[in-house]
Amino acid sequence: MTGPDRSRSVDEATLRYLARAFGRRTEVRRTSLFPTNKLESLVVTLDTEYYPPDIEGVSVEIRAYTNGDFHVSYHETRPVDRRQCRWDRHDQPHNARDHFHPIPDANTAAAVDRSYATDLTRVVERTVLPWIDERVGALWESATD
């Protein structure tokens, strides 16, 4: 066979590894691997104590597939709205295989091409977690303005 396998089997090993890694982080309140409402996902609930008071909930949902595709979504809940962004690797017509849908609503029209590390764990480590750290800082800065 030439080229990557395009089947969409859930990469359970990677999701289990990420669940253990997130479970060791102090800013994580809970991890839920393959919850009944998101059978292909790892859902990570972050501790809102790290966020300004107007942030009611923060979660990261990760889906990984054995063909290398993934979706990592960040969700931020406030009293009046919900904000989200998403890091993706999958074939589709709107962007390159690696792309990012920015906050506030992860709109497809606003997606930008990206180039991610081959391994999803490195994408989380080098791209997603630093983005979340910067987001927390930006939220605190805007809360004090």
List its salient traits:
7-stranded antiparallel sheet; alpha+beta; TumE-like; 2 helices
Structure characterization notes:
The chain is α+β, with helices and mostly antiparallel strands and 145 residues long. The chain has one domain. The protein is built from 2 helices and 7 strands; from the N terminus they run H-E-E-E-E-E-E-E-H. It has helices at residues 12-23, 120-144; strands at 28-33, 41-46, 57-64, 70-77, 82-89, 98-101, 112-113. It has a 7-stranded antiparallel β-sheet with strand order 1-2-3-4-5-6-7, with helices on one face.
Query: Which overall shape is indicated by the principal axes computed on the Cα atoms?
Result: globular
Question: What is the SS-derived class?
Answer: alpha+beta
Share in helix: 25-40%
Q: What value does the average pLDDT take?
A: 93
Query: What are the segments in which pLDDT stays under 50 over at least 5 consecutive residues?
Result: 1-5
Radius of gyration: 16 Å
Number of strands: 7
Strand order of the main beta sheet, please? 1-2-3-4-5-6-7
The secondary-structure element order is HEEEEEEEH
Beta-strand content estimate = 25-35%
Pfam families: TumE
